[in-house]
Amino acid sequence: MADSVDSILDQWSTARPEVDVSPMGILGRLSRLTRLLEREQHTVFSRHGLQPGEFDILATLLRADTVAIGLTAGQLAESAMVTSGAITNRLDRLLAKKLITRETDPHSRRTIRVALTAKGLELIDAALLEHVANEKAMLSVMDSQQLSHLEDLLRVLLEHHEGLPQA
């Protein structure tokens, strides 16, 4: 069985046989797979009128705002691992769509809290169910043991790279 990265590795083995390009194979596959899977995810999000970043904000509010008081923009930025500027743009779009509210915290006038509206909750509930079903379908080529092994291997890589100092 061969994939699109195998032909690139074959070319390298001809052009530079003395160089071990096996890391390129792993990272090239991860990169290519990420693009393909993100395209599949985007298809689901667009059916619900959402950009991927908007889905992420709504999903974060759904899973992390357990006491229904809203989250601060800082809490959202930390959870989504993006800049505050990116969060602001996403929040502005979601506010315009009436999917969230953005209000001053009654206990701290300097804090703004973001929460789902009823329309936002309905939309993210529907999008979430379709998103999870889509992700399950994308992974269905692997059995449960393979998926567990892949998850463990990816966790090792992620834990290591998340622990490295940022440049």
Automatic annotation (TrEMBL):
Listed PROSITE patterns: HTH_MARR_2
Domain HTH marR-type: 23-159
Keyword S-adenosyl-L-methionine: no
Lyase among keywords: no
Keywords, sorted A to Z: DNA-binding, Transcription, Transcription regulation
Pfam families linked: MarR_2
Stated name of the protein: MarR family transcriptional regulator
Native organism: Paeniglutamicibacter terrestris
Lineage: Bacteria, Bacillati, Actinomycetota, Actinomycetes, Micrococcales
